[in-house]
Specification:
This protein is an alpha/beta fold. It has 3 domains: 6-84, Orthogonal Bundle (Arc Repressor Mutant, subunit A), CATH 1.10.10; 90-166 and 271-303, D-Maltodextrin-Binding Protein, domain 2 (3-Layer(aba) Sandwich); 169-268, D-Maltodextrin-Binding Protein, domain 2. Helices cover 41% and strands 23% of the residues. The protein has helices spanning 6-18, 21-28, 32-46, 63-87, 106-120, 133-142, 187-190, 203-213, 227-235, 284-299, and strands at residues 51-54, 58-61, 95-102, 124-131, 147-151, 159-167, 170-174, 194-198, 219-224, 241-243, 258-262, 270-277. The longest helix is centred in the first third of the chain and has 25 residues, at 63-87. It starts with 5 loop residues before the first helix and ends in a 5-residue tail after the last helix.
């Protein structure tokens, strides 16, 4: 028989999130002794110390507390999902989905995915944050994100990924580049020219790895974490680049035309996936969004 309650977990999670029993009580609109007593009872029932009490600085999680905090948040999400399911006679989806997205993928895919999903599920809301790969992995592991759209590269085994689409790398050239009229481009013919690198993990290692697979060393002269900066530099004839994400249109921010060409080399495609913590049991809302994304990408294969 379980000796702890969801209320105790709720009070524990609030104090852990806010770093203070006082602020947790204010947030929950209950008395401070109620929160303190609930947490003390939870510690006694579990046989672990969850917090280090710091009288002038609130509370800090112990190592055991940090691990149990993630699991407590997961259990509370499941409890909310169960409650919503019981109350929704028509099985309507409700709740908020904390969604992360890789920086270069956000502008291309998220407007459609978020808008169409919330239109189909008016009771659901999405909190969206764009981030680099490291922040997405960290956010999934800590519980800040329920799901994240990212490239399935350098993802730890603790994260579960569902493939959505595969994209081939391509070369980006200025309009007046000598090879812009070719149907395909051989990387060997470009390797000595100035290369503009999309310098954001994991893209950096992926593109440099393509050169190494071909036995080449790129002549990196410029780099930027911004895909539009890379496109702009290429448009100005500073160099060529390689990308996977393919924005609509062939005009840079400053109005110059750029040209995209496939490679003659048969490089491994990049996979876009929806990721979640492997240890987390997905909520109905998470499952619904994952299924929606799979269907949407299947229906929009032309994007690849």
């Amino acid at each position: 028989m379980l000796n702890y309650t969801l209320r105790q977990l709720e009070y524990f999670a609030a104090a852990a999130s806010l770093g203070s029993i006082v602020r947790a009580a204010e947030h929950l609109n209950v008395s401070q002794p109620s929160v303190s007593t609930a947490i003390s009872k939870l510690e006694d029932q579990l046989g672990v110390q969850l917090f280090l009490r710091q009288h002038a600085h609130g509370v800090a999680l112990t190592s055991s507390g940090r691990r149990l905090f993630r699991e407590a948040r997961d259990m509370l999400r499941q409890a909310e999902d169960f409650y919503d399911s019981a109350r929704s006679v028509d099985s309507a989806l409700t709740g908020n989905l904390a969604l992360g997205c890789f920086l270069t993928l956000g502008p291309l895919f998220m407007p459609a995915l978020v808008t169409l999903f919330t239109q189909a599920n008016p009771g659901a809301t999405i909190s969206l944050k764009e981030a680099n790969q490291d922040d997405l992995i960290s956010g999934l592991s800590s519980g800040r994100f329920d799901l994240a759209l990212l490239y399935d590269l350098e993802v730890p085994s603790s994260i579960r990924t569902t493939p959505l689409a595969r994209f081939a790398p391509y070369v980006l050239l200025s309009e007046d580049h000598p090879m812009a009229k070719e149907e395909r481009v051989d990387l060997h013919e470009l390797a000595g020219e100035p290369f503009v690198l999309l310098d954001v993990p994991p893209s950096r290692n992926y593109f440099l790895g393509l050169f190494h697979q071909a036995g080449l060393e790129p002549n990196v002269t410029f780099s930027s974490p911004s895909i539009e900066m890379v496109r702009g530099l290429v448009g100005r004839g500073i160099g060529y680049s390689m990308l996977v994400t393919r924005p609509k249109g062939d005009i840079t921010y400053d109005g110059l035309r750029i040209v995209t060409r496939p490679l003659t080399q048969n490089f491994t495609n990049s996979t876009i996936s929806l990721a979640r913590p492997g240890s987390m049991r997905p909520t109905r809302l998470m499952d619904a969004f994952e299924n929606f994304c799979q269907t949407w990408f299947e229906d929009n294969q032309a994007l690849a």
